[in-house]
């Protein structure tokens, strides 16, 4: 499969924004703006846990997939404040973000836990969107590739080759998340091509079937250039996905 055969995924991560009422308002404004977008593009939104059911109700007759922003790997247990893959699947979530840099930085999420979370998501029919990326100091030190190798190897330790295309990798340079700084399209392409090559080394041909997204201050004014890169299979959008007009423009990027 070539890069033109990997269906682009345009995903919005709402983080800790939007109440249920605001979620309803967003989708009633957003869905008409993308009603004529063809099935060759996949759209997903990841709202807060408490807005999942509202989002699912509002998108029931659309092609927009709804997912969660994190989860525990256990089916159940004494894990106060956590949500399990069983709960997400029951409510109707179709995907889950795993390993976002904010989860790693603020909540001590580690690669050992993430390997189990990826496994649990696959086992329960959820699409894992696994985030990897380097800090500014790591890029300046020339250790971007070493960081990505470690994250990919450890986080995908329990994944079989035939399963790889059923998950998504999101490359997010940490220095570009919420900062207004964006990797140039060429930088994004170079690093994502490295990610794919590392996947190829371990999983062989399955790497060609696996989508790799770019995330980090993606906006309407840079989406076209990012999506023109041959190895960029979509984007994971933060702040710009909160505005229905701007996120619709991102979904409707000019190929």
Describe the structure.
It is a single chain. The chain is α/β, with parallel strands linked by helices and 255 residues long. It has one domain (11-34, 46-242): TIM Barrel. The chain contains 10 helices and 8 strands. It has helices at 20-30, 52-58, 85-91, 101-107, 111-123, 136-140, 144-155, 185-203, 223-227, 244-251, and strands at residues 9-13, 42-46, 65-68, 95-98, 127-132, 168-171, 211-215, 234-237. It has an 8-stranded parallel barrel with strand order 1-2-3-4-5-6-7-8, surrounded by 5 helices.
Task: Please describe the topology of this protein.
Elements: E1 9-13, H1 20-30, E2 42-46, H2 52-58, E3 65-68, H3 85-91, E4 95-98, H4 101-107, H5 111-123, E5 127-132, H6 136-140, H7 144-155, E6 168-171, H8 185-203, E7 211-215, H9 223-227, E8 234-237, H10 244-251
Parallel strand pairs: 1-2, 1-8, 2-3, 3-4, 4-5, 5-6, 6-7, 7-8
């Amino acid at each position: 499969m070539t890069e033109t055969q990997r269906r682009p995924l345009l995903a919005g991560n709402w983080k800790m924004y939007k109440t249920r009422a605001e979620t309803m308002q967003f989708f009633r404004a957003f869905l008409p703006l993308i009603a004529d977008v063809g099935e060759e593009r996949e759209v997903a939104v990841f709202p807060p846990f408490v807005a999942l059911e509202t989002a699912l109700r509002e998108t029931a007759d659309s092609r927009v997939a709804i997912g969660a922003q994190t989860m525990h790997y256990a089916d159940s247990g004494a894990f106060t404040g956590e949500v399990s893959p069983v709960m997400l699947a029951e409510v109707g979530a179709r995907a889950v973000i795993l390993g976002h840099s904010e989860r790693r930085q603020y909540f001590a999420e580690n690669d050992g836990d993430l390997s189990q979370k990826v496994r649990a998501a696959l086992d329960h029919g959820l699409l894992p969107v696994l985030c990897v990326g380097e800090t500014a100091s790591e890029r300046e030190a020339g250790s971007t590739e070493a960081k990505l190798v470690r994250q990919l190897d450890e986080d995908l330790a329990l994944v079989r080759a035939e399963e790889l295309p059923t998950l998504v990798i999101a490359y997010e340079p940490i220095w570009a998340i919420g900062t207004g700084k964006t990797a140039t399209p060429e930088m994004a392409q170079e690093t994502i091509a490295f990610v794919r090559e590392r996947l190829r080394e371990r999983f062989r041909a399955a790497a060609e079937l696996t989508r790799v997204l770019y995330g980090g201050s993606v906006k309407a004014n840079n989406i076209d250039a990012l999506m023109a890169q041959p190895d960029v299979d979509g984007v994971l959008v933060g702040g710009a996905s909160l505005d229905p007009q701007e996120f619709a423009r991102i979904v409707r990027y000019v190929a």
